Model the fold of this input.
Amino acid sequence: MNLISSKKFGLSARHTLALILLFTVPHASADWQLNMREGVTEISRAVYDLHMVIFWICVVIAIVVFGVMLYSVIYHRKSRGAKAHNFHENVYVEIAWTVIPMVILIGMAVPATGTLIKMYDAKEADIDIQITGYQWKWRYQYLESGVDFFSSLATPAEQINNEAEKTDTYLLEVDNPLVIPVGKKIRFLITANDVIHSWWVPDFAVKKDAIPGFINESWAVAEKPGIYRGQCAELCGKDHGFMPIVVEVKSAEDYEIWIKQQQLAQEQKAKSAQKRWSLDELMVTGKEVYGKSCAACHQANGEGIPGAFPALKGSPIVQGDPAAHIDMVLNGKAGTAMQAFRDQLSAAEIAAVITYERNAWGDALGDIISPSHIAKMKQ
Amino acid sequence: MSTSTEQVISSESNTQDIHHGPAKGISRWFYTTNHKDIGSMYLWFSLIMFMTGGCMALMIRAELFQPGLQFIEPDFFNQMTTMHGLIMVFGAVMPAFVGLANWMLPLMIGAPDMALPRLNNWSFWILPFAFSMMLMTFFMQGGAPNFGWTFYAPLSTTFAPPSVTFFIFAVHMMGISSIMGAINVIVTILNMRPPGMNMMKLPLFVWTWLITAFLLILVMPVLAGVVTMMLMDIHFGTSFFNAAGGGDPVLFQHVFWFFGHPEVYIMILPAFGVVSEIIPTFARKKLFGYSSMVYATSSIAFLSFIVWAHHMFTVGIPLAGELFFMFATMLIAVPTGVKVFNWVATMFRGSMTFETPMLFAIAFVVLFSIGGFSGLMLAIAPADFQYHDTYFVVAHFHYVLVPGSVFSIMAGVYYWLPKWTGNYYDEKMGKLHFWLSFIGINITFFPMHFVGLAGMPRRIPDYALQFADFNAVSSVGAFLFGFSQLLFIYNVVSCIRKRNQASDEVWEGSHGLEWTVPSPAPYHTFSQPPKVD
Done:
C-alpha cells in the first residue's frame, strides 16, 4: 500500500520512509529526541557540557580525516587517469599525527577529571536514602525519618500486552515515587537484595550499580521541583525492562508534609494487623498483593513458568502445612529468585496473600491465616 | 617473485596432487590436515553461525519494532540477546578470522601448511560440538542462557537457569579451540618463514594475526578461569561471587573484562590486517607507514590489558582507579588514529579503483572511525555515567563490530575468493551487496546513538513511547541488512560453481606471495620455499 502511494505521487525515498512510519507507529509521541538531557543538577549540566565538547572535537577530526579521504576518492582514482605516487613513509608526518592527538586528548582529560572529582564528593549530605534493588522493584529507606517503602511499575499489563492505549508515561510510572526536597544535598546509598541492578536518573546524571552485599554512594542536589524518570540500567533478569525509577522533587514545606503523612500511614499499617479479618477481606487484599508481588514469576494463574519459576497451584507447600508456607513467604528460599517478603509487605498483606494462594485456583483449603499470627512470626 | 620459483611451485604442486590429493567423500573433511580445507571449514562454519545469530538479531528487532510486547516473552528476549552476542562473537567473527588465517598465512609467508596440521584439524572440529552444546540449551528446561553475553554474576550463577552448566562447558571447548589455533598461528609465523623473509617483511595481515594470537593465549585461560569459578559457585558451594560467603560480585566483572577487553581487540586487529592488505592493492600504492602500523598494532595490544575497568565505571571503583582507566583508555585513540591516518595516506595520490573488496575496506575505515569516536566519548568517565548500559553503547560496539570486523571479513572474502576458487565472483552483485549492507547497517545502528542519549537502557524487550520512532527505523534497517546477506551467500556459491577463470595475480595491483601461486590455489603450495628478496 505504501509502495503504491509512493509511486503514484512520485515521492522520494525519505517521504516513503516517513509514510511507512506514519502507518505503522500510531503510538509514537512524535519526539525524535537526538541528544542527552541537560538535567537539573550542577553535575548533570557539567556532564552535558563535557559530552558536547567531546562530540564537537570528534566532529571536527572526522571532517578533516574523511575530507582528505573523500578528496582522494574523488581525485585520485584511476578512471580520472590518476597515476600512483611512490611515497610510503615520512617520519615527520608520523610524529605529527601522534603528537597532535595526544595534545587534544590532554585537553579533553583536564575538564573530565575536574567533573569526576566533583561527582565523587558525596560527603556532608542533608538527607540519606538507602536504595535497594530487588527483582524487579526498588526499595527506598529514609535513614533519618524512618520512612520505608517499595516502588514498583504502575503501568497495567493490558498496556504492555497492547490491549489498552498506552499513556505518555508508559513504562516510566511507579506506584510510590521517591520524594526528595529541592535544593538539598541527598546522598543515595545504593545496594541490592538479589542480583546487580543499576539506579539511573538521567536528569541527575546519577547512575550507580546496586550490588548485593556492597553499598555504593552517589548524590544529587535537584535545582527544580518536578518529576524525573529513569530506569534500571543493568540487566537483572526477566523484568529488567519493567522496573522504572520516578523521583518527585518537592519544595521543602511539601516534603515535610509528605514525610509526616508517610510516617502516619506506616503506623496505621502496623495497627491493621491487630484487627480481625474475614476470609473475603483477606481474599480481596490477597489477590491485589499477589498481582503486585507474586504474579511476575508464579503467574496470575499460579502455574509458574516451567523450569524457571515453580507453580503454586497444586504445590506441596501451598497444600501442606501452613507453617512451611508462611516461612517460605517471610524468609524466601536462599539461592533462588524467591525473595524474603518479611520487610516488603505488612503482616496483613502477607496473611492475605498466603490465604489467597491457599484458596484461589480451585484448591480451596478454607485456611485463614490471621494477620496477628503473621505479626507475631515477623518479630 | 622470479619466474623460476613459480615454475618450481606449479610443477611441484602438480606432482603432489597426483600422489597426495584430498581424500574422497566426507572423510576428506573429517580427517583433513590441509590448511586450505580447514580454512574453508572455518569460514563455512562462521557463515552458518553468522546467519543463526542474525536470525536472533532479527527476532530482537521485530520485538522492538513497536512498543509493547508483540512476538516474544521478556525471558525469551533475554535468551535472544545473550545467544546473539555469544554466537556472533565466538561463533561468527572469531572463527571467520581463524579461517582467513588458515587459508592465507601459509600462502602469504610461503609455507607449505600450518606448522601443526593435526592440532589444526582438532581445533576446528571442537567448534561444532561446542556450539551444538550451546544451542542445545534452547531445548532444556528453563531455556537457554538469559543473562547477557557478559554473563554477570550472580545473575549467571545463583539466579541462572540450569542450562548454565552446559554453557560453561561450551565456553571451555571454544577456549581450547582458540588457544590451539593461536599456538598454531604463532608457531607457523615464527618458524615457517622462507629464508630472507624477516619479521619486518611480513605482510600486515600476518603481523596483526601474530599479535592477535598472543592476545588469545594470554586471555582465553582467564575466560576459562572465570567460567570455572562460576561452575564452582553453582555446584560446589564456593562463594567467589557471593558477598554472603565473603566473595564479591564485582570480582566477576574484573576477571571477565580482563579477558573481555583484549577479546574485542582479538576481533579487530586481524580486521586491521585485512584492510591493510586491500587498500594498497586497489590504490596501486605501497602501504604508507608499514613499520608504524606494526608498532601501533603492538601498542593497541599492550594497552588492551590495562583498560578493562572502563566497562565498569559505574560499579563504584575508587576515584583513583576511575582516573587511571579513563586516561589509559583515552590513550588507545593515539595508535588507532595512526592506523586510520596511514590508510588515508595510502589512498592519497594513489590510483584507485573501487571493486567490492575496496568498497568494503573504505566503508570499514569510515564506519570503524565513527565507532572509534563514540568509543572515545565513552572513555570520558563522567560522561560514561550517562552513556553506560544504554543504546549509545550498543551503537558503539556494533559500529566497530559490524561495519568493522564483519565488513573486513567480507572484504577479505571478496578479495581472496578468486584465489580460493579460481573464479571471479559477480562484481555487480558484489557491489549491490555492499551498498545494501552499507545503507542497512547505518539505518540500523545510527539511530541507536540517539535513543541511547535520550535515555533508553540496553537489553530491554519493551520501551517508553519517546523511543518508538527511532526503534522502528532501526528495525527496518536491520531487516534490510539481514536479507541482503542472502546476496553474499548466492554470490559465493555461484563463484565456486560457475567458470569465470581468474588470473594468478587476480587484481591489477596485487602484491605478495599469495598471488604467485595459480588460481585456484592447488591443494599443496610452496612445497619448496620461495625466494624472497
